[in-house]
Design brief:
By secondary structure, this protein is α/β, with parallel strands linked by helices. The chain has helices spanning 4-16, 21-37, 65-70, 85-96, 98-103, 116-125, 139-144, and strands at 54-57, 62-64, 73-78, 106-112, 132-134. One of its GO terms (cellular component) is cytoplasm.
Amino acid sequence: MATLTEQLSQLYTDIHTTIPKEISEKINTMLSEHSASFDVSKAAKAGDKLPDFKIKDAFGKEVSRDELLAGGNIVLSFYRGEWCPYCNLELRALQKIVPELAANGTTLVAISPELPDQAFVTSQKNELKFPVLSDLGNGLARKRGIYHLGCR
């Protein structure tokens, strides 16, 4: 079984060999600009305080930060949406470590800006056994300082 890095690399190759060259170049330029502007010192770190929030899960039920933290530690994975093949690969890879996280008292939570219905589709499509939440408008992503539109 290929590693996540290998799967992502293969997906990149597959996509960039089938799309027009000018689109591939535009994507590569945007990736380079994002990499150059990314400031790792501003990234969330283990133990950082998580802003208070209430957002809906894949079934439309409101879930709060405090409810999630009541079960112990949490790991948040923000993803773009069900439409993103890279995100789906990552979510499936994360599913594989859920038992290890649970053994350490940690819950994995995936969050996207999509509607709860789409979070449900993502959960089903990828056979996820962890909460998938809907951050409409990227409110929590903005509070965490990770919201960024990569298009101009």
